Amino acid sequence: MSFLSKRAQGIAPYTAGEQPQDRTYIKLNTNENPYPPSPRVEEALHTFESAALRRYPRPNADVLRAAIAKREGVAPENVFCGNGSDEVLALTFPAFFDAEGRGACFADLTYSFYEVFAAFFCVPTHIFPLKADFTFDLEGMKGVDCAGYYIANPNAPTGVGIAREEVERFVAALPDKLVILDEAYMDFFGESCVPLTKRYQNVLVVKTFSKSYSLAGIRCGYAVGDAALIDALFRMKDCFNSYPVDMVAEAVCAAAIADEEYYAACTQQVKSERERLRAELQGMGFTVPKSSANFLFAGRAKVCGGEIYRALKAAGVLVRHWQKPLLEDFVRITIGTPQQNDVLLEQLKKILS
Ligand code: PMP
Predict the structure, then answer these.
(1) pTM value?
(2) CATH for 6-36+261-352, options being 1.20.120.30, 3.90.1150.10, 1.20.950.20, 3.40.1280.10
(3) Which atom of ligand 1 is nearest to the CA of 83?
(4) Domain at 39-259: CATH architecture
């Protein structure tokens, strides 16, 4: 006897990167930030009064919304907060796409959760191939008969970014289609399309505290867009979970987003290590697309992706590998501290020799 619904039986869930507990790894597999959160986060945690937890949090995270709005240069009515950007992205599917509609279009090589969400919410999909050099074929994508697009910018797992002007040409040409820009890694690029949300009603930008803010453990993400789009997300939230952002998360994220200076320094360090690591990897014979994120997609070396992953893991360095077409020749390496990156390079040299 199975109590599972047909949907539960049939769906292929997203596979998160491993978080092993068996030993201490140099963990370069889930694009976490190698630096700790801002000291203001520590302070917010210390001054948080646990007695407050007796009550429910603010249903719409209005204190955090105001802090995000200030930082992003928009009004609070243009901001929606959720339990990680995964939850925000999930809510966009029922908010903007119908099961019997024209569906959502995204790249063949992109964040694999889009496909899972589409299946979960019964949204038809159009999978459009990236170009051979892993860049987006936006001209080609324009022609797809769909209701909207999901574009990770920078893309995952390739790291490839699209300049804001190019995105603007795309959204301006398609006023009747919604363009959802997943900017999880945008702070490592600096071409955010948040300014476009003020001029184009068909643009929704989704961001997260997990990467550049070093707060993956707090689970908080947000969307910025026209008030009508934001209202639709609130409608969906209140059909699913009225309090997705807990009190601690709200206090911590509001403190973090105010500390621009601290995070700018961490981001700069990650970016400069990214360039050093890429040059070293290319020197070893890896193909490495230019990355605008906090990770590198490296492959087609003389040892295959799976072997590199296994040998690195045995040596205590964890990277991400997928045994899937288009991906199996590559590994995705999160940028660590200079010391961690040195260990990675040293181990890779051994593996390749
Ligand atoms: N978008 C992309 C492209 C990602 O790689 C991730 C991290 N797995 C997310 C969104 C979700 O991040 P979070 O839920 O931690 O905000």
Answers:
(1) 0.97
(2) 3.90.1150.10
(3) 14
(4) 3-Layer(aba) Sandwich (3.40)
